Amino acid sequence: MKTAYSPLHERHDPEKEFYRGLLVDCFERPRRALGILRELGRRELGEVIELDAEIPAGDSGTTESGIIEPSSTIFGSRLLPLIEHVHGREYVDFVETIFRDWARETHLAGVPRPSYALPYTFNRLGQDHDETGEVVPGTVDGRLGYFSFDTCTPITAGTWHAALGSAWCAVKGQEIVLADGAAFALCRPPGHHAHRQMCGGYCFFNNAAIAAEAFRQHEPSARIAILDVDYHHGNGTQSIFYDRDDVFVVSIHADPLTNYPYYLGHSNERGGPNAPESNANLPLPDGTDWNGYAPTLQRALDMIRERDPSHLIVSLGVDTFVGDQISNFRLTSPDFFELGALIGEREWDTLFVMEGGYHDEIGVNVVNVLEGFERGGGARG
Ligand code: Q9C
Ligand code: ZN
Fold first, then answer.
1. Dist CA 252 CA 266 (whole Å)
2. What value, to the nearest 5°, has the Cα angle with vertex 100 and ends 94 and 136?
3. Residue 61: how many CB atoms within 10 A of its CB?
4. Labelling 78: which of 110, 207, 302, 315 has CA 20 to 30 A away?
């Protein structure tokens, strides 16, 4: 299986996130993707296609010499329209310009601010915005809170380019699936918490949703299923597709009664009025191991089979690992091989999109899933 990778992710390397009243070191760091890349090289899963052309050296923030204007035309004609289809122009503008404005505030007004932008106030929690009737605030802090839903998702000078590179991997992965039947999009930063108009949970652009949109644009009759196996509920993906019957979303995750993102992910959330069976949440208790996980995964795969999808997108988080720093499931490294094999047995054309995973074994666990998938029969493996 081929991998799509962009080194642009290294430009997003914030120092701190706000957690339980403290600024703590970020969990979502470049070493995560670099660890996966290293393991891919060791195991020889398949070619790694590196996307690095056309990207200017600067960033969307400041240097000693002053303010650099961001550019939104560097990825050619395909990527930005797809991103704007999923997220809307206002929000994409926000991701592009907010750090520049944050830095400008320091530069011009002399207000000291750190090298990462974080909100301190919010419009709403757990909900996305209406398309009309709301006034977007004019100041940096107002905009940050309007387009964010938590305080653990800092935006830095390099975040815009990293988020573009991540979405680019998803779109490239979608193209590879059309040719090969399977691909791995090594996306970083992750995407499944990003709503249409809100960042959060370390996510800016919803890479899985963008890939789904790319499949649909290539073939308007495509029926997409998204299987989210990250430890955390994919609240962004759910909300983007909640009222659409062309994309079925099923998520296995830690019960939101006791886990981030808290306000979405319950089993009674089954879809909007126009798509009443388009969403399925399968929450599991803290401490779940493979014996508890495997039957639920089979259930999710059976639900997908009922929809007879033309393409499957797997939001692949390996923060279900027993040693993960921020999670409480108990899957082992060999279990990830089994997880991949159970998906591969179904023989759907499949795009894996990287999401979470915060242990140094992330590379082993991810490549185990992908190898398991091929061994299980995925992509005629
Ligand atoms: N101490 C993904 O896995 N913060 N996002 C939890 C950490 C939010 C996780 C607090 C976790 C977001 C893609
Ligand atoms: Zn997660």
1. 10
2. 30
3. 23
4. 315
HSE of 118 in the Cβ direction (CA atoms, 13 Å)? 22
Report the C-alpha gap between 127 and 121 in whole angstroms: 15
- Ligand 1 near 354 CB (within 6 A): no
Q: Does the annotation count 193 as an active-site position?
A: yes
Which ligand 1 atom minimizes the distance to the CA of 191?
A: 13
Helices (H), the chain: 30-43, 79-87, 89-109, 140-146, 159-180, 207-218, 235-241, 290-307, 333-344, 362-376
What mean pLDDT comes out for the span 284-299?
98
Rounded mean pLDDT of the chain?
A: 91
pLDDT of residue 62: 40
Q: Which residues, 6 or more positions from 371, have their beta carbon under 8 angstroms from its beta carbon?
A: 43, 45, 337, 340
pLDDT at position 68 is: 37
User: Are 210 and 171 spatial neighbours (Cβ–Cβ below 8 Å)?
Assistant: yes
Minimal-distance CA residue to ligand 1 atom 8: 201
Return d(Cα 82, Cα 310) in angstroms, integer.
20
182 DSSP 8-state letter: E
Residue 90 CB contacts under 8 Å (≥ 6 apart), including other chains: 136, 197
Instruction: Output the CA 379–ligand 2 centroid distance in Å.
Output: 26
Residue 127: band (very low, low, confident or very high) from pLDDT cuts 50, 70, 90: low
The answer to whether 185 and 173 are in contact (CB under 8 A) is yes
d(CA 279, CA 239) in angstroms, rounded, equals: 9
Alpha-carbon distances of 194 from 110, 207, 254, 334, rounded to whole Å: 32, 9, 18, 30
Sheet strands side by side (includes 350-354): 48-50, 3-5, 182-185, 350-354, 311-316, 224-228, 247-254, 279-284
Which atom of ligand 1 sits closest to the CA of residue 202?
5
Find the ligand nearest to 355 CA. 1
Look at the alpha carbons of 264, 267, 268, 273 in this order and tell me if their dihedral is positive or negative: positive
Give 354-378 pLDDT, tens digit per residue. Answer: 999 999 999 999 999 999 999 999 8
pLDDT one-digit tens code per residue, 308-343? 999 999 999 999 999 999 999 999 999 999 999 999
